[in-house]
Amino acid sequence: MTAEAAIDPRLEDAVLRIARTDRLLVAMDFDGTMSPLVSRAQDARPLPAAAAAFAALAGLEGTTAALVSGRALASLRAVAAPPEQALLVGSHGAEVWLGPDSPGLELDNEQELALQRAVASVQKAVDAHPGTVLERKPAGVVLHYRQAAAQAAAAAVAEVRQAAEGQPGLFLSEGKMVLEISVVRADKGQSLAMLREVTRATAVIFAGDDVTDEHGFSALHHGDVGIKVGPGDSSARFRLESPRQLPAVLELLAAARARWKPAPA
Ligand SMILES: O=P(O)(O)OC[C@H]1O[C@H](O[C@H]2O[C@H](CO)[C@@H](O)[C@H](O)[C@H]2O)[C@H](O)[C@@H](O)[C@@H]1O
């Protein structure tokens, strides 16, 4: 058991109930959920206890573990080191790994050109405003302003917004100290619906911390479990104060699920 093991009794009940479903999908956001938020995206790592419980779940019968992230798949793999059985959703759903046969992301010419223009607009803002950082993704570009002074951050965000808003084929989204432009429309709600279908899940548990995770919470069904991590408005039924409380929940789920036996066919 982890140090921060106290779980809200209502959440505990929900976890113990979902552990008895036929086919369970455990879908976890990464940054701010499996991993505490850090200044530089490349330095994020899952809490060891969260990673261990997630890996244990991935190895259990009737259970699929998935990371559903805004990160590019390559970046997600590099920082999360997911277990090999895990399914991966990257770039908010624009990239999907369901196994070796998964098709890679392909952009058409218009999307490539739109992406080049988006990257140029973010690069211009980053060059002008110290502390801001550009992150490339296969289908998008991110302006990070966590390390910028408030004025520089506001100016960079305004400039990138102005360059992108109203441009056909560009989709803007906000996250924690980030503004992202993508040339593929995707969200975590669609991603959870897709994972539910391909895994034929009879129940889903999903945890996330950011506004982009709200699409995921909205896609949950009666009997699923949605957990908002950290402060902020949310439609999730349950809440944890920080990523440090997640390991206890995953450990409880893994232990209960390991004891569960599928009904004989
Ligand atoms: O959906 P997620 O797995 O939570 O990914 C969302 C974004 O995560 C990363 O940015 C966030 O985490 C960084 C590291 O802790 C932090 O510095 C940044 O301020 C956060 O917004 C990632 O860099 C983005 O590409 C993801 O979209």
- Low-confidence segments, given as residue ranges, are none
Q: What is the mean predicted local confidence, pLDDT?
A: 96
Bound molecules: ligand L263DTV3
Give the tally of β-strands: 11
Tell me, what's the shape? globular
| Fraction in beta strands | 15-25%
Spatial strand arrangement across the major sheet: 4-3-2-1-9-10-11
- The radius of gyration over CA amounts to 19 Å
CATH superfamily (homologous) name of the largest domain: HAD superfamily/HAD-like
* CATH domain class name of the largest domain: Alpha Beta
CATH architecture of the largest domain: 3-Layer(aba) Sandwich
The percent of residues in helical segments reads 25-40%
Query: What is the chain-wise order of helices and strands?
Result: HEHEHEEHEEHEEHEHEEH
Structural class: alpha/beta
